[in-house]
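step 3/5: co-fold with 6-sulfanyluridine-5'-phosphate
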Amino acid sequence: MSSPHLQTYNERAQRHANKAARALLRVMEEKQSNLSVSVDVTKSKDFFDIIEAVGPHVCLIKTHIDILEDFDPTVIDRLRELSEKHKFLIFEDRKFADIVPWHCSIQKGSTRSQDWAHITNAHAVPGPSIITGLASVGIPKDRGLILLAEMSSKGALTTGSYTEDAVRMARARRDFVIGFIAQHRMEGIGASDTDNIAGEDFLVLAPGVGLDATGDAMGQQYRTPEQVVFESGCDVIIVGRGIYGKGENVDTREVLKQAQRYQAAGWEAYKKRVQRT
Ligand code: S5P
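step 4/5: write tokens
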């Protein structure tokens, strides 16, 4: 079987072991979108203005729900309604990183993200027990976990043997770990001769994507959708400020225009990738 990145999202949806991954892959194919918008704004009005504008064009909305200054539980209700209305999944970028397993599974605060986010993520730094802890609350709800294997910021320590260990941890829990925040494909990385890696399919969600900038003043590094999806074989492009700028008093027409631009660029890079076989 060819490497996952040479198969269509639909083909992969039919085989994936995890329900959230299957749903995401199906939505990507259906909406012709591998775009995830990262809605990193502090006011719920801006948050929802952006989501209403980009909703029809994304496969996944990525949230940092704790940065909303005016958060209240109705935010979650509305987010879920929009997820159904526009058919996108929700990814709470919670970056769990604490010790195990009980601490992780109760570290949910007032928002209880396992109740509404189809996908969340964790750092590999605590070791495999972080997966065990999150799986104990995530598996019963058909959730999927993303491990941070390679970060996009300048000087990130997520390289070499750290990345390999993160992939090994994921390999041992393919029922729950559906992929990585990374910059390249990860299948087979860190595998020994005795590991069964046949059929391994990790979704690679890549932040650090921009069409107009190569970085910001805080160490973020941007690559284009063509570099990320076609050259590096990543599956989902995560875009934040490239779509809504500062994210204050957003101009929804401009947000829509940028979302369409990134959607088209990401999809074109994917089509080029799967057609080269
Ligand atoms: O390595 C990473 C991992 C993540 S999840 N680099 C990242 O930039 N992110 C997140 O992606 C980051 O927290 C932010 O929410 C988003 C990128 O936003 P942008 O405005 O730079 O596109």
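step 5/5: annotate
Residues 38, 40, 93, 151-153, 181, 207-208, 220, 238-242 surround 6-sulfanyluridine-5'-phosphate (CB under 6 Å).
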